[in-house]
Amino acid sequence: MSIDLVHDIQKGFRTILHCMSRPGTIKSMEEFNDGIASFPEGLPATFITALTLLDREVSFALVGEQTKELGDMIAAYTMSVQESPSAAEYVFITKQATKEQIVNVFQEIKIGTLVNPQQSATIILETEFSNEKELTLEGPGIKTTAELSIANSKDWIEERRKANKEYPLGVDMILVDELSNVVCIPRTTVIKMCGV
């Protein structure tokens, strides 16, 4: 692996921060892909995001099929400990995850407390984006609305709404695709189906 663990991770963090402050904006992390060409399971953007967000102070969970090698690699490079989805600060959902597994994550995940809303988890979800504009996003960081199409949104959009119904409780989401694009959807963002 030839990814620059200082320079590239700083750039990755700035990319995620930009997307978190501008929900629905698609940014690319493809420039880091060459450094992780031997990446085992999951998408390169998933591993870049893990390197960016994890350290020995936080824990992570993996949801999907055949994630052992990925989990071992993330733990080795970040010193983070792998936990169950209900205990982890960061939950990575791979493209191999079933709808049932995704629904279970939203039902089990930490959403914080009224005293400590920051003690919630962030979901990193592998998906696909398209130009069909099926979803409308509204909220802080969006001038009027943002439109987006997310391949597996029907699997989790209602569960996300339930998890985020009592602000400031809720979960933030980072979405990544095979082209190493990233989109962030904070808990403050409202998602509606276009035309509804």
UniProtKB/TrEMBL annotation:
Question: What Gene Ontology molecular-function terms does this entry list?
Answer: lyase activity
Name the gene behind this protein.
phnH
- InterPro entries attached here? PhnH-like_sp, Phosphonate_metab_PhnH
Q: What's one Pfam family the UniProt record gives for this protein?
A: PhnH
Query: Gene3D superfamilies recorded for this chain?
Result: Bacterial phosphonate metabolism protein PhnH
Q: Which UniProt keywords apply?
A: Lyase
Per the record, the domain of life is Bacteria
State the organism of origin: Siminovitchia terrae (Bacillus terrae)
Q: What is this protein called?
A: Phosphonate C-P lyase system protein PhnH
UniProt entry tagged with the keyword Lyase: yes
